[in-house]
């Protein structure tokens, strides 16, 4: 095989692999490997068409390019894909003002293969490209899982004075959101029991039991509000039925300079509601999810819009900041990985991948 046909086959394999990999990341709400703005671009509103990842359309087009024998039809498919790449490059730099290495490489590959379209693709490029995409996806999942499983020290997760714990029958109880409660009195589910978390989280850590009551089995869930997988998880939580929920997770919110204002406003909005903790949390979460793209791409603007929707939140900002300050100290002392969401069971290692029902142990 001469250099030109060989280069064509390699480029087709790379293009298909990139498309399939990006489609899988979007489907699973996973971060990209490496640095750059891939996260921002891939999980923006421009990362999907008709609720399907743009990468899926690219994958189908690459497979068609490989399988269609007619040169002119192959050229039309590549022209369509090249035109789409131009549009997405303009969106990347002019609208989202970010840089995705994978997306840019895919565009360059598409244009190169269009120039080389006279060369006939080999059928073996399809399974090879898909295999490479699968390998990259498994590597991404492995890296996230490995990062999550940091060495642990044994200490219990305990509600703090800022833990506004809902009662077991929250639908019939007065709201606990507007009071600063002390930790629940010691009982068979006393958090000072020997059942310990795999991480050192302060004895006075501010886990928020807004989705169910505290028990000795309650795990912890660490979220950040500008994380695609976290927002997807929150969406799943809003769709779950909560009747007879025996226990809930301790919610921790990881803050950064980028998402601090949004996280403060979110907590303040929940605290300002005159309803049960769970209902308040789920209602504010539902409204936040209506502006998911904004939360991912411009958390500060999302914070302003959330504050406009919940004017009373301004009266609870100081309380929200105290909660987050306490949580930040607890998370720092635990030396946790940066990855979110992160599930911390009472026993065992922390996990980045977990079933939703693991948050509500029986």
Automatic annotation (TrEMBL):
Record-given protein name: Vitamin K epoxide reductase domain-containing protein
Annotated GO CC locations: membrane
Protein family per UniProt: Belongs to the VKOR family.
Pfam families registered for this protein in UniProt: VKOR
Record-linked InterPro entries: VKOR, VKOR_sf
Membrane spanning stretches: 50-68, 75-93
Keywords from the UniProt entry: Disulfide bond, Membrane, Oxidoreductase, Quinone, Redox-active center, Transmembrane, Transmembrane helix
Region described as Disordered: 150-198
UniProt keyword Glycoprotein, yes or no: no
């Amino acid at each position: 095989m001469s250099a030109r046909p060989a280069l064509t086959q390699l480029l087709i394999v790379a293009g298909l692999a990139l498309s399939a990999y990006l489609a899988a990341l979007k489907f699973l709400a996973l971060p990209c490997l490496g640095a750059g703005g891939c996260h921002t671009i891939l999980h923006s509103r421009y990362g999907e068409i008709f609720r399907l990842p743009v990468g899926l359309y690219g994958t189908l087009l690459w497979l068609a390019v490989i399988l269609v024998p007619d040169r002119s039809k192959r050229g039309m498919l590549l022209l369509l894909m090249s035109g789409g790449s131009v549009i997405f490059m303009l969106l990347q730099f002019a609208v989202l003002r970010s840089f995705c290495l994978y997306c840019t490489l895919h565009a360059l590959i598409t244009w190169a293969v269009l120039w080389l379209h006279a060369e006939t693709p080999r059928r073996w490029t399809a399974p090879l490209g898909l295999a490479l995409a699968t390998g990259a996806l498994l590597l991404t999942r492995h890296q996230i899982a490995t990062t999550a499983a940091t060495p642990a020290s044994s200490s219990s997760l305990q509600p703090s004075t800022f833990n506004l714990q809902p009662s077991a029958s929250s639908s019939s109880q007065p709201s606990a959101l507007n009071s600063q409660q002390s930790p629940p009195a010691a009982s068979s589910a006393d958090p000072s029991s020997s059942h310990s978390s795999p991480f050192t989280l302060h004895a006075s850590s501010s886990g928020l039991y807004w989705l169910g009551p505290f028990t000795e089995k309650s795990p912890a869930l660490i979220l950040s509000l500008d994380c695609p997988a976290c927002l997807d998880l929150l969406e799943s939580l809003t769709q779950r039925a909560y009747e007879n929920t025996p226990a809930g997770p301790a919610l921790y919110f990881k803050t950064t300079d980028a998402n601090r204002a949004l996280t403060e406003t979110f907590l303040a909005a929940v605290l300002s509601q005159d309803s049960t903790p769970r209902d308040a949390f789920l209602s504010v979460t539902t409204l936040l999810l209506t502006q998911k793209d904004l939360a991912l791409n411009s958390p500060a603007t999302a914070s302003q819009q959330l504050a406009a929707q919940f004017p009373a939140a301004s009266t609870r900002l100081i309380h929200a900041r105290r909660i987050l300050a306490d949580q930040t100290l607890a998370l720092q002392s635990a030396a946790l990985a940066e990855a979110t969401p992160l599930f911390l069971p009472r026993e065992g290692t922390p996990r980045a991948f977990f079933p939703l029902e693991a948050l509500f142990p029986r």
